[in-house]
Amino acid sequence: MTTTLEGIAASKGIAFAKAFVLEQPEMNIEKKEIEETDAEIDRFQKAVDHAKQELQIIKEKTLNDMGEDKAEIFSAHLLVLEDPEIIDGVTAKIKDEGVNAEFALKELSDMYVTMFEGMDNEYMKERASDIRDVSQRILLHLLGVENTSLAAIQEETIVIAEDLTPSDTAQLDLSYVLGFATDIGGRTSHSAIMARSMEIPAVVGTKEATSAVGSGDQIIIDGMEGRVLIAPDEKTVEEYKGKQQEYLRQKEEWAKLVNESSVTKDGRRVELAANIGTPNDIEGVLSNGAEGIGLYRTEFLYMGRDELPGEEEQFEAYKTVLEKMGDKPVVIRTLDVGGDKELPYLNLPPELNPFLGFRAIRLCLEETEMFRTQLRALLRASAYGNLKVMFPMVATLEEFREAKNLLENVKAELIQEGQAVAEKIETGIMVEIPSTAAAADLFAREVDFFSIGTNDLIQYTMAADRMSEKVAHLYQPYHPAILRLVKQVINAAHNEGKWAGMCGEMAGEETAVPLLLGLGLDEFSMSATSVLPARSQVRSLSGKEAAALAEEAVQLPTAKEVEALVHERGFVTS
Known about the structure:
The chain is α/β, with parallel strands linked by helices. It has helices at 37-66, 68-80, 84-97, 101-117, 122-143, 166-171, 190-198, 209-212, 234-255, 282-287, 311-325, 360-366, 368-381, 397-416, 434-438, 440-444, 454-462, 480-495, 512-519, 531-540, 543-553, 559-568, and strands at residues 3-6, 8-11, 14-21, 157-161, 177-182, 202-204, 218-222, 227-230, 271-276, 293-297, 329-333, 386-391, 426-431, 449-452, 499-502, 523-526.
């Protein structure tokens, strides 16, 4: 009899194979008294060096296979191995307390993991995952325990694990690993993001996959609905083979739209753009037919290193993206770090509520030399393509004016120096704070465009951290309050002859596309792999019918009723 586990659909697709249950190596760590502490410290340092060598190899493989932004995860891991709070902390514990390296490392790393996991934001929780991954790697060397190697898999399989660390996912050989399922995790976890990059089906957050599935069990993973089917009967296998063929056929149809325009049945044209983190992402953007870059997250240039990137390094990165995109628009967001995205070398003070803290434009307007360096690099690169500059986390008009004034001053300096700079560069803001959405009509008089950052706008509006298990149900993209704010922003832009886009995850969601189209959104920016499905959907819709749908949706009282309306009216087929 078929057993079905429900989880979160993290990456689309359907796969059939035997299960490979990834078992955590058994590590018995006992406290031992050590007399020769210098020798113990030396043993610890050798284990750290082995871990560094392994991570360098994994980083290089990831860079070649998946691009720079995924490889940056391992830059963060390598930084953990250089972190004096951890490494020096372990050596001090060995020397001062006369304990063995394993015990000292486990005790210290557990303390940091607990501390970071207790913080109520996604970035800090990922840092806990990084520390756990790195400390386990060192412990394996100290204990002489061989880790289960995912790279050694030599037959078609679906990996089942409590969780997959970045190191685990980097080892997956896609010739054999057809998909994976985990006990824990969400759509924004490392493993989910990497699964989408690798385009393999994944289901996360099943809670019990490792206890319910045994190695060698025949299973089906359904990344469309978020299901794992154990020991499927013949009827179920045939049903899912049909679903798989339909999905593959659909992918072939989407591929035919690479060079087509994003236009509705009744002639309304919109722009489907892609979000990127590094220049290495451009290949995927172009191969998926994106009509521009709606969000270039420049913070990846600043992360996973021990000092600020210089003007020349930034200029080359921005220039590369602009040149490769030709005359297509490229919206580059200025630095969005601080608070929840920590840069250790900035020595920012810890904050009780970093999401509402000293970050993004607030940080840049205070650290003006750092900001000017980025603006110089952006403006120099503007001569090589169609650059649009976007400021994040803008809460007041004063902030936008100050940032734009600084941009104009830097532009004047560069021209005086004889540097080539584009004559016209649009400047806009991310709308991610409710106050900005509420005052959109005032902002629209001065900005050139809006890009709605729904990831933060939703959690700020609903006062619900999307990473908090207890309140995640309140993170509702289709809540009438969110739709009304989006409508307000779009209307404000159009009333001033400006354009409005969206660069949050919502922009690529199948249920959201007809609603956003109906609300009048001009530009939809999403992950590159979502562009073709979204284009197919847009081309199947009537702009007039979508407008009527949106008008009705904003009058409904709940998010569930909005979603039900979209499905009942046939705007979503799956």
